Amino acid sequence: EVQLVESGGGLVRPGGSLRLSCAASGFSFSRCDMTWVRQAPGKGLEWVSAIGGGGDRINYADSVKGRFTISRDNSKNTLYLQMNSLRAEDTALYFCAARGLYYQYHMDVWGEGITVTVSS
Amino acid sequence: EIVLTQSPATLSLSPGERATLSCRASQSISTYLGWYQQRPGQAPRLLIYDASNRATGIPARFSGSGSGTDFTLTISSLEPEDFALYYCQQRLKWPLTFGGGTRVEIK
After folding, report:
1. Widest CA span of chain A, in angstroms?
2. Which of A15, A113, B37, B49 could form an S-S bond across to A93 if both were Cys, CB 3.0 to 4.6 Å?
3. Is the pLDDT of residue B99 over 90?
4. Interval B73-91: pLDDT, tens
């Protein structure tokens, strides 16, 4: 079964750091581009970052550029999002998604999401 | 950045009725558009890829059309499980962008 499971969320103070993980199973992880998408409470979807299957082709939304770092460990089938200098506006449900597993460049498999709350 | 504008923000319909959702892009994106459904408390799921192709397992009552800047998602006859949020998303250029969403609610 194809599955993505996020972990590492929680409550953090403004200016703090957090690292999210996304464990993949059931497919050839190293062959798949991956992405992070977030959803602030009561708001719509916002794309955050994406990475190619080999760890190259990295892109960020302007809202997180310079503060967040996406990476992956293909030996562990795991995607990461290192989040530094966190702000209240980063509070959201963070989803990881496979991009192009079945349909080229579309986010076609999603995890259930993990909550990040930035508050003092 | 490519801005996607979805309309209406909310669609109030009864089961069995036809739903027509619109997504307009700020510049031409050919057919590089996907539609996603998000039910309450769930992750989004891909319904339509490349503007008009149903993803595996998506019922035939869902259809997508359009190219360039104007796109439509049609649900031919609403089932109870179709009352949800719908988002369009373009994959042509970075940054990837989503529309603001359309909520389909029970009238």
Report:
1. 42
2. A113
3. yes
4. 999 999 999 999 999 999 9
